[in-house]
Amino acid sequence: MKFNRLFTEKGLSMERLVALVEVDDAGGIANAAPDDNSRQSLISRQISQLEKFFDIELKNKTGKTVRLTPAGKQLARLARDHLQSLEEFQRTCRKQPMDVLIGAGDSLLQWLLLPRISKVREVLKGSVVEFRDLQNAAICDALQDHVIDFGLLRSDLVTPGSLTGKPLGKFGYSLFIPDKLFPRDRKTTEAELIQLLPVATQGGNTLFQRRLEELAVTRKWKLNVNLLCESFPQAAQVLASGQMAVILPDLARLGISFDSVWVYPLKSLDELRREMFLAWHPHRLETRPHLAGVQNKLAEVLKFVF
């Protein structure tokens, strides 16, 4: 009988593989079953049984946190692909829509993906689309682990031999200025605007914030930063008050009305100019037939130019 070795020994079961995938998705046993000690103990036993079956360590403990080993993550990835294939076969038989998971940062979600959702759904042929707000590192991990189908990533993170992608466009940073704060027809300079106007932008010790602070020190600018927000879309909402200018990625041009706001490109931040890619893991698409060939069409509807 084929696959005889998998079934003549005890330890392997669908339920145990599902538990392993849940731990991988959650980042640890405690996160997979928060505030449920009985469930955590059950999951730990299930993984131990898989360890005995495969004769390899699938989890390890660092302090109080139990996470999967590289072998555990590899098995979780294999299990996830097979479980998802079975689920999709069931959906096909029942004529239910498939799902498509896309990861992106908050700015890309708010200003690129959501405004183009109709075109995205048209390309994906009626699939249920799920957007996940993820940072670049988390998108890379989710693509590698086959947790999501597509991710919007910086070009330098789309590494040949691992991830594949299509370019979407490049963006830099600009100062978005309410007319009542500083008239658009008045002659000015970048240095004057960045020091004179009260400014809001993204904080949180990001690469962008660090570079902005380094630039101010190098050029001996006295930045008039009045507000730091968790994300650029949060900062963009301040424009409605007319009381502050806001430093935002050029992506914000796709979602902001210019009736009472004008834009001054910040050439001093050109080194932070980024090229974005639609990225995917080739094997992930191979295991999801309904996504065959959609990547090029999806990249086309998400392209942007500034």
Describe the structure in your own words:
There is one protein chain. With about 300 residues, the protein is α/β, with parallel strands linked by helices. About 40% of the residues lie in helices and about 20% in strands. The chain has helices spanning about 5-10, 15-25, 30, 35-55, 70-95, 105-115, 115-125, 135-145, 190-195, 205-220, 230-235, 280-285, 295-300, and strands spanning about 60, 65-70, 100-105, 130-135, 150-155, 165-170, 175-180, 200, 225-230, 245-250, 260-265, 275-280. The strands form 3 sheets. A 5-stranded mixed beta sheet has the order 4-3-5-12-6, sandwiched between helices. Strands 9-8-10-7-11 form a 5-stranded mixed beta sheet. A two-stranded antiparallel ribbon has the order 1-2. Helix 2 crosses helix 4 and helix 2 packs across helix 5 (about 70-95). The longest helix has 24 residues, at about 70-95. The chain is elongated, with a radius of gyration of 24 Å.
